[in-house]
Specification:
Layout (H helix, E strand, L loop, with lengths): L2 E2 L5 E2 L15 H21 L7 H27 L10
Antiparallel strand pairs: 1-2
């Protein structure tokens, strides 16, 4: 289902159907996702620096930033709860 924004334009994604998802990822996968989100946001800023962004574009950027911070927060909490213990090699 698509929605209309303030200006009557159709939004590309459905903001009413939201489910909470839980996935388990390796550290390298989390790093890849965070870097991808950073790049996506950077490219938006690079491609549209002078253009006034539409409501959908602002919503998308906000979603990207919120997702980035949520994943980063979960990752930091995971490191505190489940730290990797390093042991010295026995010769």
């Amino acid at each position: 289902m698509q929605h209309r924004g303030e200006r009557g334009t159709m939004l590309e994604f459905d903001i009413d159907k939201i489910r909470k998802n839980k996935i388990e990822l390796l550290d390298c996968q989390v790093d890849l996702i965070l870097k991808s989100l950073e790049m996506y946001k950077y490219m938006y800023g690079f491609m549209y620096p002078r253009k006034k962004l539409s409501e959908e574009e602002n919503l998308r950027i906000s979603l990207i930033v919120d997702t980035y911070h949520q994943i980063l927060s979960e990752y930091v909490n995971s490191q505190k709860i489940n730290p990797i213990k390093k042991y010295k090699k026995i010769a």
